[in-house]
Amino acid sequence: MSYLDQITSPTLLLDEKICRNNLKNMAAKAAKNGMKLMPHFKTAQSHQIGNWAKDYGITEVTASSLKMAEYLCDQGWENIHIAFPFNPLEAKKLNELAVKQSFSVQLINTDTTQKLVEVLTNDVGFFIEIDAGYGRTGVEVSDFGLIEAILKIAKQSSHLHFRGFYLHPGHTYYADIPKIYEQTRQALAMLKSKYQSEYPDLVTRTGDTPGCSVTDDFGDIDEMGPGNFVFYDLMQSTLGSCAKSDIAVAMAVPVVDIKKDRNEILIHGGGVHFAKDVLPHEDGGKNFGEVVYLHDQGWSIPNDGSHLKSISQEHGIIKASDDLISKVKVGDLLGILPIHSCMTADAMGAYLTLDGKWVDHAEGV
């Protein structure tokens, strides 16, 4: 029986072969640069996909919340890093989980550092998150006073251990990637040089998918933790991080009506399935996803401009090419490549593989 025979409502499809290839390629790039890869599982959020990652020598993983980190516990990871400024209200919970699982967290202020000093009775590592131009979060790269205040407070605890510096250059989504990565290399190299004599085992880590996908020279950065590369998506394709053929997920959606006079197709598939990330379309409108044709082996990618032009909660309207409108029937299934696979996967909470098997997701529990 084809996987397509299982689908009656919006369903997120996962091509295991493409996903594994993305994992393999990024692991190879990390190895080539002498770096360790700790993929950010904010995208996949899956035990099964974690097992695939282990096949390529990946032994540590990154999460975006303590909730996600807890889901990833008991899976044999050497360490789970929480790549978000740590929430001090969760210090007690972190301490409980650290009995059985190695964790590291990110610190950006003295208040949270002090809270962990007071609460921890189990070992936890920490990175100081650095802001070298993104402007979202982190200690400014030149704020040595704050860096040293965090380190001084952490020394009060025998359970809080400095691991190094983390820098997420998220502005690679909006600006010149080579220029930004030159700044990233310089910032982390400067911090390593300044603090390595006191902390000889410190490491530096970066972790955005656009930069990790296209950069060839990482300088002496030790670790990378990109996330979206596991699936990629249309946003990454637009940025040049991947080809559309590297996108490992597609939403299967039922066709519920057709307006041939307007070249529009109504689908069951809206914001609750895709989220509402959007790209500008070449015709001046909006693009919430691009149409692919589903078949028993997966999907094929046409080059005819058919795209999801609007969505509401459950509805989606496809602006269809003449070729698509001539072929499609009410009751058919179409595929949609997502704009932002992380948000789409989070909204759906499960994956269906092309061999008809369901793959877990943290939000599906």
UniProtKB/TrEMBL annotation:
Keyword Disulfide bond recorded: no
Organism: Algoriphagus namhaensis
PANTHER family: D-SERINE DEHYDRATASE (PTHR28004:SF2), ZGC:162816-RELATED (PTHR28004)
A GO molecular function held by the record: alanine racemase activity
Keyword Nucleotide-binding: no
Family the UniProt entry places it in: Belongs to the DSD1 family.
SUPFAM superfamilies noted in UniProt: PLP-binding barrel
Top enzyme category: isomerase
Domain D-serine dehydratase-like: 248-355
The protein's name in its UniProt record: Alanine racemase
Enzyme Commission no: 5.1.1.1
InterPro entries: Ala_racemase_N, D-amino_acid_metab_enzyme, D-ser_dehydrat-like_dom, D-ser_dehydrat-like_sf, PLP-binding_barrel
Record keywords: Isomerase, Lyase
Range of residues in the leader sequence: none
